[in-house]
């Protein structure tokens, strides 16, 4: 219903634009189509997928650091009426596209945010090309994205969508059009000792530079510089698209060296390999040692301990306990950290099977940062784990509103559809992710799951092999899924060979008992599958969160051992 409301609204805007600038109106067929849609739109009210986006305000008495020296260059090219006139000729076609969207995306709730001005921040470059300062440039990009994301009525594209363009060689104007953006930000970062200069420019989809600015200060003032830059970008887009003002400016970080360690740790956390996560924890510990009251340092540690629970040869419960301790310390220092609430929620669910506590923390995380597509995606997964599939799908759609061109939001939507046994929709979303990024491992994995559930064994094998190829030979989970696909396709000898490989590798590294149990399920060996699930219970393997909702375990349903496990983890 909301798509139809958005379609009618778009029709009204574009017909008004045509009348004002070209003195023409829609033809009779177009008017009739709009009237048919109006008949199905209620006079008042919004469905439960309506996106409410309060602005988080910083207390008025929180000052900016006086040391932040900020210089903004003059706007290079103001918005021109001539471009509006040229674009108005496309208005009728855009309205037709929106009306068509309503017919195949009905009920998904994308209209409200997709109507907003949209912006992306490309990876920022280091002026000197010094790769050792890459983490500073990435930190500046992340800070700018975070500040822009707090601006009401502005849709900000995530790094998952923009980073793939870093080495593409595509012109910025092409990227802006491909992502359906109102504007795109690019720029450079230069660090000199403890000082930093960030130079940015904003261009429109035609490649016309709308604004440029330069911001200088201490490295620890990067959050302040990002907030100032976000305000300038918002001001420029307000001229073209009426966005709201940004929230109050940020304070500078209190300790230069602690902030630098946090930046380095965040850089490694984003890469998610075992080595990188271990480095993230080392830098997180360095940050809190330098400043024991540094909330974001503990928040970083919590996130990385959660990730580490999957990749090292240690009981996951130990990692979850460390994640809980770090996140609680972070929240004791700063309860407004949405990511720390989300980290605590995950550790409570995966480590303690405390579903009520986890939901409370996820809801607080969403409340604090309702425009974080990452937090909403995590919450969607959680709702799937506990069997609330309609709510999970609603949250996944909200994440897609926030970043509709991201392969990550598409694959997460595919996952929640699959867990809800809506496999055709899961396949469509997985294919959407792969259309954006053909080498996106999770897109192939979600496709494998849904194909397997539909009995499309040949397609399932192909998708599982693709996921494992992209993940690499050391990814034991993806290897296990290939073995399951082979077993389901009757290729038993190949499945057993992979099973032996996984069992042998347990002598060297942590291999999830969940992965081994999945292979035994594919082979039809229920006793061994249940035995390995018991081992997963003993070490609190995080994969047990899917015990009740993952269709792969369907052959075990009703078995006494399986039902006993469900009761013990309170599902």
**CATH class value of the domain at 117-241:** Alpha Beta
Report the helical percentage.
Answer: 55-70%
| Broad structural category | alpha/beta
Sum up the overall morphology in one term.
globular
CATH architecture of the domain at 117-241: 3-Layer(aba) Sandwich
Low-confidence stretches: 1-25, 34-112, 239-248
Beta-sheet strand percentage? Answer: 5-15%
Kindly identify the CATH topology of the domain at 117-241. Rossmann fold
Report the biggest beta sheet as strand number plus sense, adding barrel if it closes: 7 strands, mixed
Task: Please characterize this protein's 3D structure.
The protein has 571 residues and is α/β, with parallel strands linked by helices. It has 26 helices and seven strands. β6 and β7 form a beta hairpin.
Task: Please outline what is shown here.
This protein is α/β, with parallel strands linked by helices.
Tags for this entry?
about 575 residues, alpha/beta, Rossmann fold, Serine Threonine Protein Phosphatase 5, Tetratricopeptide repeat, seven-stranded mixed sheet, 26 helices, about 60% helix, globular, disordered N terminus
Layout: helices, strands, pairs:
Layout (H helix, E strand, L loop, with lengths): L1 H20 L6 H12 L30 E2 L9 H8 L2 H14 L6 H4 L3 E4 L3 E2 L7 H15 L6 E2 L2 H4 L9 H7 L4 E10 L2 E9 L5 E10 L3 H20 L14 H14 L4 H17 L4 H14 L7 H18 L4 H15 L2 H14 L4 H13 L3 H14 L4 H13 L3 H14 L4 H13 L3 H15 L4 H13 L3 H14 L7 H10 L3 H14 L20 H9 L3
